[in-house]
Write a structure and sequence with these properties.
31% helix, 256 residues, globular, alpha+beta, 4-stranded antiparallel beta sheet, 26% strand, 5 helices, Creatine Amidinohydrolase, protease
Amino acid sequence: MITLRSKREIEKMHVAGQLVRQAHQKVAELVKPGITTAVLDKAVDDLFAEAGAVALFKGVPGKVPFPAATCISVNDEVVHGIPGKRILKEGDIVSVDTGAKIGGWCGDSAWTYAVGEISDEAKKLMEVTERALQIAIELLPVKKRWSQVAKEMQHEVESAGFSVITTLVGHGIGTTMHEEPQVPNYDSREFRQKGDFDLRPGLVLAVEPMVAVGREDLYLHGDGWTLSTKDRSLTAHFEHTLALTSSGVRILTGED
């Protein structure tokens, strides 16, 4: 069941979203060659703790409970990278995904960052992936069904010669991080028949296109969490928590 949120509830989600935005601002300040992913994670974890928020990712069940406040995925890693001793190098691109719960409400956002000077291919990948997210923001108020938005996101990615990661999707969000509906970044007959949904005021979605330069096929690392492209091609990931209101889209994890 999809739950539509009231204006009051969306305001509470905005508080969580802005804390997540602050986390990304902190990461953006710190990302540079020579820094470890553990340092980035600690900065976010400390920020959430100081605010009295719950780090949503920490303790999520899996092969082992997820041990960090952030998922930090580098280059060919798509999602769920575990922060640690890895040192970021010039030319890397690093996706940082994080979420927080405060006052009973959740916010979730991911961003991909350049580490120093990066290749033209990496720049294009990041631009196209971020543009796919922007297309969703622009179309949510004017389309009737999510599949219509997802089709345009997919077109943006594939017309650039890249691949949408179809095994991973966005989600509804509210009092818990993952709620109905599932929010794919691509269109398919199966989704239109079984999972499509109307776009109505009160809908709050975590929209998160994930894109690969090469093929979308993935493999799971031995840590039980990190997912990478099988062909080792670069990937990017951008995500905002978006509320659809009667006056348009509110980016709860974005700048006011």
